[in-house]
Amino acid sequence: MLSATGFGEKREQGVASSSGAARPSGVLVGHSTADFQHRPEVMEVQRASEVPALQVLVVDDDGPVRKACCEIAAGMGFLVSGAESVPEARAILKHQTVDLLLLDLKLPGGGGLMLLEEVKALHPETGVVVMTAFATVSSAVEAMRIGAGDYLTKPFALEELTAVLDRAGQRRSFDLESRKLRERLRTTKGMGNLIGRSPEMEKLYRILSKVATSTHPVLVLGESGTGKELVARSIHFNGPNAAKPFVPVDCGSLVPTLIESELFGYVKGAFTGANRAKEGLLAAAEGGTVFLDEIGELPLDLQAKLLRALQEKEVRPVGATQAVPISARVLAATNRDLIGMVEQGRFRKDLYFRLNVVNIKIPPLRERRADIAVLAQHFLERLQKDSGVVHTFSDEALRLMTEYDWPGNVRELEHAIERACALSSGPVLHMGDLPTQLQEFRLQTIGPPGLTERETDAVLAGVPGPSGIVSIAEMEKHAILVTIQQLKGDKLMAAKLLGIGKTTLYRKLKEYGIAEGGEEE
Ligand SMILES: Nc1ncnc2c1ncn2[C@@H]1O[C@H](COP(=O)(O)OP(=O)(O)OP(=O)(O)O)[C@@H](O)[C@H]1O
């Protein structure tokens, strides 16, 4: 095992190392220390099978630093290669997949940033950690803008490197996992138009395949936007009467008198404007399916009429003396607590039992997060088919989508992706292209890296209000806090980049009431 103290002392530049004494002996296979000074390193590590086989490429012209980084990464279970120049790195990248790039920005000929740009353009999924000295802070910021996920300021200690590699490795594993899911989606779709492969959705498909073959009433329960109508359609279109009509009725959006005439029909002269008779939807469905959406909104008197129609399999159109037979299957859905409504006398118990012969509950999206990436990819591909424009998600955007709670469920996700595609300026959809509620969630829940809770609140306070007007003082505060956020809490570097002295920066933070004890000057 590597000892933390072995790398604890800092060298002038690079990883603090005790001249290779702390090299993880017995872990590396095939190359001597001298090899690392002169040629690309290719280290195979005897890895425990549970360690993900992520490939790391270390690019640094400083032999000892490169070697130390390679050794540490190898000791952590990564598969490691090293390169001392941009052309050498390019050659490796051409022939091998690299999951993580540990890149020194100050390479001979100054090609670090160029290489980063090439990697992000050709392999946007590759995670990049840049290494920089204080003198090149502005290039580190530029590197983060181009797409580097993290940075290390030289000289750095063993713990810093391992923490950064650990973070990058975890992110990469997550991204690979979600990519695998998306890949699976390409080959296996859900039932009908339903997408999702989470255990919850698999269970739903099993129930649906049974329910579809029968003609019993089904009550579909779930929060708004979870896909209740899609489930109802899936039951109908996978059932024996798929060729017959599927008739949706939104009980929530029609006035009561209209629902009655829509459902049951009316005879000529039944009311003012009824110039001719109209068949009701229950009869018009002719052996198909009537889907009563928002059934909880149905007024009590209509509930009684619907119950009678279902029991007697006939309806009496408004103003008619004769009943008309019906043969449609009835599916109903609600996002309301129907049992609670029954207890409060707002929904008829007998109708509840009649509709609730089979009951399907669709879990909210936040309870089946494994579906978020596949659904997101599905919506992206659907938009691509319509517009011909190809988009992909940045790994960060996908991660944020997976962590967000989606109170509006699949509908909110669908709209978020449509919006991101419409607003994005390039083929990759970034976190910034996602709606405000996701940005706010990122700041509130995950917190900007390097900022305390108080600072996070202050950043949020700098977000323009509904009027869109922000004072100059607020803009200054926002600029300072966002820079600190982007630099992961490095206030010294933030002062440098903002072109103000550190004393001024700490004074400003104090003015905002967020300077921490012992920090000033
Ligand atoms: N599993 C899913 N796969 C693909 N698309 C889905 C899925 N679930 C929902 N959607 C899409 O999300 C949107 C909302 O779905 P739907 O209208 O069926 O939800 P709902 O629960 O009936 O909403 P509401 O209660 O507000 O009426 C639709 O565009 C639908 O196509």
From TrEMBL:
Alphabetical keyword list: ATP-binding, DNA-binding, Nucleotide-binding, Phosphoprotein, Transcription, Transcription regulation
SMART domains: AAA (SM00382), REC (SM00448)
PROSITE patterns linked: RESPONSE_REGULATORY, SIGMA54_INTERACT_1, SIGMA54_INTERACT_2, SIGMA54_INTERACT_3, SIGMA54_INTERACT_4
Residues forming coiled coils: none
Positions of the UniProt region annotated as Disordered: 1-25
Matches recorded under SUPFAM superfamilies: CheY-like, Homeodomain-like, P-loop containing nucleoside triphosphate hydrolases
Domain of life (superkingdom): Bacteria
Residue ranges constituting the Sigma-54 factor interaction domain according to the UniProt record: 194-422
Chain positions found as 4-aspartylphosphate: D104
Full protein name: Two-component system response regulator HydG
Organism field: Granulicella arctica
